[in-house]
Amino acid sequence: MILETIQSPQDLKALSHSDLHTLVDEAREALIQKISHHGGHSGPNLGVVEMTVALHRVFDSPTDKLIFDVSHQTYVHKMLTGRAYSFLDVSQYDAVSGYTNPCESEHDLFTVGHTSTSLSLANGVAKARDLKGETYNVIALIGDGSLSGGLAYEGLNNIVELGSNTIVIVNDNDQSIAENHGGIYQNLRALRQSKGRAPNNFFKAMGFEYHYLDNGNDLDALLSLFESLKDCDHPVLCHIHTLKGKGLDFAEKNRESYHAGGPFDRETGAYVTLGQPQETYQSLITQALMAKMAHDPEVVVVNAGTPSILFNKTQREQIGKQFVDVGIAEGHAATMVAGLAKNGVKPIWAVFSTFMQRSYDSISHDIALNNLPATILVFGASINGMKDQSHLGIFDIPFLASIPNLIYLAPTNKEETFAMLEWSCDQNDHPVAIRVPVGEVVETNKQTNFDICHPYDVIEGDTVMVIGVGNFYALAQAIVKGLKEDHKINATLVNPKVLSGVPLSYLNNISPSHQIVVTLEDGVCDGGYGQRVSSALGHTSIKVFNYGLSAAFHDRYDVNTLLEDHGLSVSKISAKILDELKGSH
Amino acid sequence: MILETIQSPQDLKALSHSDLHTLVDEAREALIQKISHHGGHSGPNLGVVEMTVALHRVFDSPTDKLIFDVSHQTYVHKMLTGRAYSFLDVSQYDAVSGYTNPCESEHDLFTVGHTSTSLSLANGVAKARDLKGETYNVIALIGDGSLSGGLAYEGLNNIVELGSNTIVIVNDNDQSIAENHGGIYQNLRALRQSKGRAPNNFFKAMGFEYHYLDNGNDLDALLSLFESLKDCDHPVLCHIHTLKGKGLDFAEKNRESYHAGGPFDRETGAYVTLGQPQETYQSLITQALMAKMAHDPEVVVVNAGTPSILFNKTQREQIGKQFVDVGIAEGHAATMVAGLAKNGVKPIWAVFSTFMQRSYDSISHDIALNNLPATILVFGASINGMKDQSHLGIFDIPFLASIPNLIYLAPTNKEETFAMLEWSCDQNDHPVAIRVPVGEVVETNKQTNFDICHPYDVIEGDTVMVIGVGNFYALAQAIVKGLKEDHKINATLVNPKVLSGVPLSYLNNISPSHQIVVTLEDGVCDGGYGQRVSSALGHTSIKVFNYGLSAAFHDRYDVNTLLEDHGLSVSKISAKILDELKGSH
Q1: Which of A156, A161, A541 is most worth mutating to test chain B (most B CB atoms within 10 A of its CB)?
Q2: pLDDT of residue B120
Q3: For residue B532, pLDDT beyond 80
Q4: Which of B118, B125, B129, B157 should one mutate to test binding to chain A, selecting the residue with the greatest count of A CBs within 10 A?
Q5: Which of A155, A402, A538 is closest, CB to CB, to B524?
Q6: pTM score, two decimals?
Q7: Full domain range(s) for residue A62
Q8: Which residues in chain A show pLDDT less than 70?
Q9: Distance from CA of A33 to the nearest CA of B (A)
Q10: Does residue B487 fall inside a structural domain?
C-alpha cells in the first residue's frame, strides 16, 4: 500500500505518475472506511482527494503554506502529512482532530473551525513573508459555501491589494452545508456553465488573474494547473469545480445529508442510528415554529448556513418564503433581523452559540441599540454542545448578557422554553435571546407562562441558596434535594431564567438566614451570570461561590471529566457547602 | 428662503424645478455655515447635497424607506425632514445628532454609526415588506469606503437573492475616511474611468442591474435616474460618482482632512484649534511606533479604515510597507493579524474599542484560539471616548476579558503604556491587548517595566482596598488620599494592570483587616473586571462594591453628569466607604 509509505509530503515527490493515481484511490478508500465507521465530514473530503494529492505533489509544505478554510476537508491532507495511521488503524481513529491543528503537525498552520477565515489568514502569512524578504507559495483553499461570508470578501479584497504571490483555490462543489443562496452563486453557476468564460466574473472584477478547471477531480489536470501557477509573483485564483461526496453514489446524490454525519452503511448510505431519543429540544422547536409560521404569515425564521439546525429540505420547501438562509453570514443574519423587526414582522434567528459570536457587533449595534423585538434562538450553548475547541458553546453568556436592551433567557425545561418563545414573539419592547436547553428534554407537564415582570422562580428555604442557570438547574435541584434528604438543610432553590441582569430586589431582600449562595452555569464563569450575583451580593456578608467552566478552549473533552475537573458534581458542591457551613459556626 | 419652508419631504414635491436648484444651494450654504462653526462630517455631507434633494423629491419617505450607511452623511436629509432649524439656528446646532435617530424623526429608520450595515438592514426591511404584501421602495445608500466591509458584500449577496425591489445607491467619491485599499477599488476606478462600461463589473457579477452616473452632483441627472428606477420590481444598483467635500475648495482637495473634524475657517479651511495639549497618548504612540518600525523591519501596524488614529498621510508614506490599512474590515484586520503573527512578524493592530467589537470572532477564533503573539492597541475605551450611543468605548472589558489566552492590559500612565507595549512585542506566548489610556497624559517619570509574572502594583494599607482600573486609577488614588488625609484611614491602593484575570493569590492573602474592597473601572460593570473581583472574594466576608457604568447605550452625554449619576466621584465613593465602615462597627 502506497499510502502507508507516505510519512510526509516529500514522499509524494518520488512517486511515479501511476503510483500517484493509486495513492488517490487508496486515500479515497481509507476515507470511506473511516467515515463510514466513525462519522465525520464525508462530502467535503471525498470531493478533494485528487486536489489534496496534487497540492502536496506540486507544492512543498511546510515551506509553502497551505491554509484551509474551516479545515473540515483536510482528512487526506492529514493522511499525506504523517497521520495516515489515524485513517488506517481503527484504534487510532480518534488520534487526530477533524480540523487542522498545529499541535498535530507542522503542516497544519492554524486551528480553525469557523468559516471564511482562510483568505485573511493567508493574507497575513503572505504579508509576513514579504516583510521578511522570503519567497514561497501561500495557498488558501476555500469552498463555495464559505464565499457567502463577508470575511472571505475582505480577504479577497486585501489579497489583491498586497499584490504578491497568493494562490486562492475556490473549491466549488455547488453546495454549502445545504444549497447555496445569493448573488455570488448565480455568478459561480454562470462560470461553471460557461467553463469560466461568462462575461461577468466576480473574481476578475475583484482583480484576480482567474483560472477555471471544470474537472476538479482529474488529478492530471490539477497537477498541470498547480505546476503552471507555482511560484507566480502575483495573486491568482483557481476556480475548481469538484464533485462533493465523490466516490460514494449516495453522497454524490444527496450532498446535504452526507456533508457530515455519523457512521453509515457504505453500501446503502443508511446512517447508523444509535437509538437516540425521538424528541429533542430542536425537534420540538421545529414543530412549534412550523405551526407558528403556518398560523402567522409574518413570522420568519432566519438562519446562516446551517438550516438543518431546524428544518430539512422538505420542511424548508414547505415553509417557503418564511424561512431565509442567508449563507454563512451571521453578521448579515443579525442585521437583516434588525431590518425585519423594524418593518413589523416577527423574525426568529436560529443560530449555534459558537457561530453567533461572529455577529457580536450586528447584535449590539443593529438589533440591541435599536432595541428591536427580534428573537434569537441560541443552540448548542452548553458543555454538552460541540466539543471541538473551535466550536465551543460556552462563551455566550459573557458576550450576550452585557449587551444593553437585549434580554437573554435560559429556560430549564420544555414548558419554559415554549413559554419564553411565545412571550418573546408577542412582545414589542426588546430583543430577546433564548438559550435553548441542551440534552434530554425535561418535561414538567405544567401549564407554564413567562413574563419578564415575574422572571425568576424560587423555592424558599434558608441557610443556603443554590441558583441553577438553564441546563444546570437540574444540578441545583439535585444538590438541594441531597442537602435536605441527607443533611436536613432546607436550601433555597432559584431558577433565575433571565441572564441579562440579576433579580436585584429579590437578592437584596433574601432572608438574612442565608449564609451561602452557590451559582451554577453551563458556560464560562468569567464575565458570566454568577459573577453578577457575586457583585450584587457584595455588600452583604453572604458567601458566594460561582461554579461554571474556566475560560479556556477546552478540546475534544469528555464531559464528565471536564465537569469533575471544575467541581461540578452534586457531591463536590454539597461537600463544599457543608464545609463552609461548618467553618462558619 | 426655501429651506425654511420645508417641514417634510412632501414640501419638495410642490417646488418648481428652479426652486429645487435654489434649495440645493441653500442646503449647501447651511451645511457650510454649521460645519465651519460647529464641526462634523464635512466631506461626506457636502458631496450628497444634490443626491439627498433628488431622493426626497422622487421618493416618498417615510412610505419609501431610506436607509443610510453609517448615516454620517444625513445632514441634508435632516434639513429636509423637519430638522432644518438645527442647521439654521446656531442655538439649535446640538438639537440633532450627527447620525440618523428614530427618536428624532420617522424618516430615520435606524440608529446607526458603524459601517456597512445599510444593505443588510435594507434586505430585512424589504423582506418584511414582501412578507406583508406591501409595495414601496427600499433604498439603501452606501459609500465606496463602506464597501470594504464584508457585511456590505453579504448584504449585496442577499439583496440579489431576495429579488424584489431594493435600490442600492453606491455613493462613490473615491475616498474612505482616508484613501481606499483593495481589489474592489481597482474595479470602482475602472468603472469610473469607463463611465460604467468596464468589462469587469463587480456589481453585475453579483447579479445587479447596474446604472452608472458620472456626475453625481448634477441634480437633474439624479432626478432623472431616480425617476427611472422608482417602483422597479427587482434589485438595482446605482453607481453614482460624487465629489467629496463639494463646494469647499480645500475640502475637495484634501478629502482626508475634511472627512470630519472640528470648526474651521470657511475661507482658508484652517481648523480652529482649541489649545489642545500637544502631547496625547496617541501622539506618543505614533512616535514610538514609528521609531520601532524604523528599527525593526518586522514590526507591522495594521488598521481598519481609521489610519489617522495614528498616522497622517505623510507618516504613512514614510512608513511604507510596515503599515497596512485593510479598509473598514475589522474582521479581516484581526484574522490577518493572526496570519502575520503565525508567520513570525510582530503585528500591532490599532483599533477603536467601538469598532473592535466588529471582530469578536476573529479575535477569539483566529488570534486567541491559536494563541498567537499579536498586540492590539485599543483606543477610545473610556467614558471619555466617543460619546454617541453608536460609538461607545465602554463594552470592551466584558467582551475581551472573557476570551481565553488573550491578555488584556490596562495601563494607568505613559510609562506603563510603553512598558506594556514593549513587553507585548518582546514576548511570544500570548496575544495581548492594551487599553490605551484616554485623557490627559499622566507621567510618572519613573523607570517602568512590565512583566506578566508581576502584574499588579499595590500600596499596602488596611481596612479598605481601592482597586482602580486603567483610566480610573487616578480616581482610586484620590479616594485613598482623601481617606488618609481627612479620615486617617490608611487604605490599600491597587493598580491591577491585567484585566483578563484577577490576582487570585494576592486577593486570597490580603490582610484580614480589610473590610471593604471597592473596584473602579472606566466601562460597564456587567461582565467587567470588578465583578471578577467580587467573585474571587465571594468566599470571604469582605464587602465588595463595584463601580463603573451601567450597561446602556448612553448617548451624547455630559461626562461629569454621567459620572455623577453612577456615583463615580471621590466624595460619593468616600462617603459610601465611611458609611459602610460605620455600619460594620
Answers
A1: A161
A2: 98
A3: yes
A4: B157
A5: A402
A6: 0.97
A7: 2-249
A8: 274-277, 584-585
A9: 31
A10: yes
Q: Which chain A positions have a beta carbon within 8 Å of B340's beta carbon?
A: 124-125, 127-128
Closest CB to B114 among A148, A344, A361: A361
pLDDT value, residue A511: 82
pLDDT value, residue B288: 97
CB B517 within 8 A of CB B423: no
Question: Cβ B535–A534 below 8 Å, yes or no?
Answer: yes
Nearest residue on chain B to A207, alpha-carbon basis: B183
Instruction: Say if B21 falls within a structural domain.
Output: yes
**DSSP characters over A243-300:** -TTTT-HHHHH-TTTTSSBS-B-TTT-PBPP----S--HHHHHHHHHHHHHHH-TTEE
User: What integer is the mean pLDDT of B544-555?
Assistant: 98
Do B426 and B490 share a domain, yes or no? Answer: no
Tell me what pLDDT residue B583 has.
Answer: 81
| CA distances (Å), origin B91, targets A432, B558, B585 | 40, 18, 54
Tell me, what CATH number does B367's domain have?
3.40.50.970
Q: Which residues of B touch A128 (CB under 8 A)?
A: 298, 300, 339-340, 342-345
pLDDT of residue A2: 97
* Residue B11 burial class via C-beta count within 10 angstroms: exposed 0-12, middle 13-18, buried 19 and up: middle
**pLDDT at residue B554, as a whole number:** 98
The residue length of chain B stands at 585
Map grid coordinates 523607570 to a residue. B447
Nearest Cα residue in chain A from B162:
A182
Half-sphere exposure of B220 (CA within 13 A, CB side): 4
Give the number of domains in chain B: 3
Q: Based on the domain organization, do B109 and B241 belong to the same domain?
A: yes
Question: How many CB pairs below 8 Å do chains A and B form together?
Answer: 402
Give a yes or no: residue B388 inside a domain. yes
Is residue A380 within 8 Å of A400, Cβ to Cβ? no
* Three-state secondary structure of A351-412: EEHHHHHHHHHHHHHHHHCCCCCCEEEEECCCCCCCCCCCCCCCCHHHHHCCCCCCEEECCC
- When scoring A335, A358, A517 by the number of chain B Cβ atoms within 10 A, the one with the most, hence best to mutate, is A335
User: Which grid coordinates belong to A138?
Assistant: 501561500
Contact B434, B370 (CB under 8 A): no
CATH number for position B464: 3.40.50.920
Q: What is the pLDDT of residue B585?
A: 54
Nearest to A120 among B127, B152, B336 (CB): B336
Across the range B334-362, mean pLDDT stands at: 98
Cβ of B366 and A121 within 8 Å?
yes
pLDDT band at B178 (very low <50, low <70, confident <90, very high): confident
The H or E element containing residue B79 is none
Look at residue B501 in the predicted model and tell me its pLDDT: 92
Q: Do B183 and A206 touch (CB under 8 A)?
A: yes
| pLDDT tens digits, A212-266 | 999 999 999 999 999 999 999 999 999 999 999 999 999 999 989 999 999 999 9
Interchain pair A361, B132: CB under 8 A: no
Three-state secondary-structure class, residue B30: helix
* Residue contact B128–A343, C-beta within 8 A: yes
Q: Is residue B461 part of a domain?
A: yes
Q: Are residues B225 and B328 in the same domain?
A: no
Closest Cβ opposite residue B401 in set A110, A331, A527: A527
Q: Are residues B73 and B206 in the same domain?
A: yes
A153 and B158 in contact by Cβ < 8 A?
Answer: no
In the predicted structure, residue B512 carries a pLDDT above the cut 90: no
Q: Pick from A117, A153, A402: which is nearest to B399 by CB?
A: A402
Residues B129 and B230 in one domain: yes
pLDDT at residue B273, rounded to an integer: 78
